[in-house]
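It is worth pausing here to work through a concrete case rather than discussing structure prediction in the abstract. The textbook approach is simple: state the sequence, then state the predicted structure, then interpret. We follow exactly that order.
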Amino acid sequence: MPKPKAGIIYNSVKPVACEIASEIESKLHDHGWEVELGTGIGGILDYASPGSPLSNTRIKELIPDNFDQDISFAVVLGGDGTVLSAFRQLAPCNIPLLTVNTGHMGFLTETYINQVPQAIEQLLQEDYTVEERSMLTVQVYRHEALLWEALCLNEMVLHREPLTSMCHFEIQIGGHAPVDIAADGIIISTPTGSTAYSLSAGGPVVTPEVPVLQLAPICPHSLASRALVFSDSEAVNVFPATQNPMVMVVDGNGGCHILPDDRISIQKSAYKAKFIRLKSPEFFRILREKLGWGLPHIAKPTSVELP
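Step two, the predicted structure:
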């Protein structure tokens, strides 16, 4: 009978992540598991440049060697950037991930380093649930030829170059009539990404289970241009309605230069981000702990005695 298989994705530039990865590997080996290791660097997207617009790796080419659908689960050691990278690598393999925070904010992580021994015990006993989050497939077409593509868990951002003026964006959602937005940029995000860049741009927080996407303008020119929430069954096409090149960034990680005749296609991916939950997920608790949402206000004194 073949051994059960697990995976580990870790941030190789953080000594603590490397150390914990080695400890987990040894423990799983002791329990008869086969373990595959990969680094978060493997999921880093290339940045294209105007002279090298094809600097991109196709979605399925990011899967690490020896990682496949036979892997029961993977442990991710790092911060939110490593988590985003790991899902780009492993979502096509349908592998659920236990995310362990070795960074700062850790909004996307499930547990902490000091809780790893108990977490591994729960994994071995299959004492956990799996929460699915939607992802996006982002593709750039030039003259209808696929130029660039990536999986996205948080958001796609299209914005102006630093030394250029405000831009126009022609956006078509599903079969609806195109709209024109004048702004410094636009953000199209998943519910997971609603607590990231979109939140900073004034977009609403969307709970993870709601089947929607969100469009948020960045510094719009018009008071009428506000965030829009729409069904995630609708594909989105974005056309740069300006003569200046723009920059597209996916999950704050990698992207490509967008020319005036390019088209960006964004649609819900067939792949899911599968988060291992060691306890019942409580989204409002995470908002409270990480972002301070819903904390009670400290009451002001009812009267002040003057000297």
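Step three, interpretation. The first helix runs from residue 15 to 30. The chain has two domains: 5-127, 135-270.
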